Amino acid sequence: MKWEPSADVKLGPDAVPAIVWRGKGTMAGGKGDWGALAVSAVFQKNKRVAGCGGWTTDKPDLEKGVVQTLRTLRIGAAMKTDPGNP
Q1: In which region does residue 30 sit, left (phi positive, over 0), alpha (psi from -120 to 50) or beta (all else)?
Q2: Does residue 21 contact residue 6 with C-beta atoms inside 8 Å?
Q3: pLDDT tens across 29-58, in order?
Q4: C-beta separation of 27 from 33 below 8 A
Q5: Which of 16, 34, 44, 64: CA 20 to 30 A from 56?
Q6: pLDDT on residue 25
Q7: Is residue 79 part of a domain?
Q8: What are the residues whose beta carbons fall under 8 Å from the beta carbon of 40, sequence distance 6 or more?
Q9: Residue 62 domain boundaries
């Protein structure tokens, strides 16, 4: 896995400053290439948030989904997706 130098970005509706890294690698056994993004931000002075995502490079639409998901990171009340696990 090789990572490019970090870049400064803004996240969420409050445009929180964050750092993002882009990486590239080859799947085990040489069965294709993949890309990855990692992000780190500090919300509300001391609440650190980190996220990452990856995709196979033969499906560029997956990269768009990873980018969109990481852009929406924020602190707040999360939606409960599993009513049996409060």
Answers
A1: left
A2: yes
A3: 777 899 999 999 887 777 787 888 899 988
A4: yes
A5: 16
A6: 92
A7: no
A8: 18, 19, 20, 48, 49, 50
A9: 2-71
Q: Per the structure block, which two tokens stand in for 29?
A: 């056994």
CA-nearest of 74, 86, 68 to 42 is 74
Structurally, the chain folds into a number of domains equal to: 1
Q: Domain for residue 66, yes or no?
A: yes
Q: What are phi and psi of 44, to 5 degrees?
A: 50, 50
69, 53 contact by CB (below 8 A): yes
pLDDT of residue 68: 84
d(CA 13, CA 26): 34
- Decide if 84 is inside a domain: no
